[in-house]
Amino acid sequence: MGCTGCSTDTGGKPNGCKSNGGCSSGGCNRMNAHDWLRNLPMADFDSACKVIEVSFSQGTRKDFFRNPTLQPFEKGDLIAVEGVSGFDLGEVSLTGEIVRLQMKKRNVKEDNPEMKKVLRRATDRDIDLWKQNKAREPEAVIRSRAIAKQLRLDMKISQVEMQADGRKATFFYIADGRVDFRELIKVYASEFKVKVEMRQIGARQEAGKVGGIGSCGRELCCSTWLTEFKSVNTAAARYQNLSINQTKLSGQCGRLKCCLNYELDTYLDALQSFPDNCDVLQVAKGNAFLIKKDIFKNLMWYTLPDSNKQYPLSIERVQKIKSLNRQGITPDELEPVDVTGKQKEAEPEMVELVGQISLRTLEKAEKKKKQQQQQQRQQRPQQRQGGQQQGGQGQQGGGQQNRGQQGGGQQRGQQNRGQQGGGQQRGQQNRGQQGGGQQRGQQNRNQQRPNNPNRNQGGQENQQRPNNPNTGGEKQPGQ
After folding, report:
1. Which residue among 56, 132, 225, 380 is least packed, with the fewest CB closer than 10 Å?
2. Alpha-carbon span 387 to 381, nearest angstrom
3. Is CATH 3.40.718.10 correct for 132-207?
4. Is the separation of the CB atoms in 64 and 53 below 8 Å?
5. How far is Cα 385 from Cα 378, in angstroms, rounded to an integer?
6. C-alpha to C-alpha distance for 156 and 167, rounded to whole angstroms
7. What are the backbone dihedrals phi and psi of residue 35, each rounded to the nearest 5 degrees, phi first?
8. What class is the 275-326 domain?
9. What average pLDDT does this structure show over 167-176?
10. What backbone phi and psi angles, to 5 degrees, belong to 47?
């Protein structure tokens, strides 16, 4: 909510409103007005506005002061102005032609002789004295409340504002009726050694001075921009179909929320399309009574005496039933509108844009891919049957890999395998397995079971089974 130049770091002066981190408490935005006439060139300096707007206590109070010497002031400057029997210190909030618009809004005349003047820029001594007196305010609030309670006065001290020089104090209080505080002023004057001024405010003005966050999550309207408080009643809630719940409709001030009036005109305009004198409708089951009106769906809700169920009716149906009742005709049913059934949303049609692939093209490609996969699956069993032959079939492939599968052998270019009932031959490794024998190219081993202890060594190994003792394995030295 605050300006972007502010910071919560109090070590240095921020570039924005110079409130030294007051944005976190909402001080920068209290009754703030944007000077949209600031950059406009001035045609005649003699007719320029000689009044400036000064804010006190972080914007909770603002007043207009005449600048007789036409000193150039900027927004955020601390200046000393005339006070009661002394001076007061404030912050410049507006300068230039925008001040005239603000004065017109508040019905303040520029040539008012009672308007106080600007004295000077605030000096270091003025600022130190101002800070000392401001530090007395919290203690003065506690002490003043205790004194008012001792005197049994029906009032509440909301805020105490000290003048910069400490010669005057303004006590803001809340009371339902008139309060005789003549004795209270004497006690305050003797207690605080200041000139006392009592000022009565309302509960909404108090909320604007204290500030805070509303239920909407934003700063209170009364502390940021709302200057005029209009009366709010429960009829505004009824027109908007809100439940009359005091806790939900009340703001921090304990009164009805000011925002109930914001949309009231819109609701009143929408309700003009609804028929009048339709609070009771006569049907066969009895009299139907109006419960509420839904301006967003243009429906009117009724209840019947035999049940607690609510029936939504369209405006046309209500007008038709009302016209029938005037003719002395009583309809059988209300014919309510079905608001529970969810209507199926129509699927948006496909829109082909330039440079995009349509879904039909993707479907064709997917179908073509599936057909190719199905053809490959059908060709695999045929290839397996053609590669297996009984009685011997040779397939030779030159180049990198030659395979030959027969009933008695297989040959390759790099690896020649021969598988028969009694042996297998390779190029590098020749294996011969026949019944119980194996031939290898590099290592020939003869392994026999205990029934055949004959084993030939010397680079050759023979392995025989008992049933087939004849096993021959030869190893070519050049292979």
Report:
1. 380
2. 10
3. no
4. yes
5. 12
6. 23
7. -85, 85
8. mainly beta
9. 92
10. -90, 10
* 195-200 and 168-174 beta bridge pairing: parallel
How large is the average pLDDT for residues 403-415? Answer: 38
Residue 261 structure tokens = 């009036």
Helix (H) or strand (E) holding 274: none
- Higher pLDDT, residue 16 or 253: 253
| Burial (CB count within 10 angstroms: exposed 0-12, middle 13-18, buried 19+), residue 51 | buried
269: region left, alpha or beta (phi > 0 left; psi from -120 to 50 alpha):
alpha
Q: What is the pLDDT of residue 41?
A: 73
Secondary structure (3-state) at 359: helix
d(Cα 268, Cα 275) in Å, to the nearest integer?
Answer: 13
What whole-number distance in Å separates Cα of residue 77 and Cα of residue 34?
A: 16
pLDDT score of 227: 80
Fold agreement between 132-207 and 275-326: no
pLDDT at 44: 67
Q: Report domain extents, the chain.
A: 31-122, 132-207, 230-273, 275-326
With a CB cutoff of 8 Å and minimum separation 6, the contacts of 65 are 51, 52, 54, 81, 82, 115, 116, 117, 118
Rounded to whole angstroms, the Cα distance separating 80 from 165 reads 10
Distances (CA, A) of 391 to 22, 384, 420, 422: 103, 16, 11, 15
pLDDT at 469 over 50: no
**Cα separations (Å) of 275 from 175, 220, 242, 321?**
45, 38, 21, 12
| Whether pTM exceeds 0.85 | no
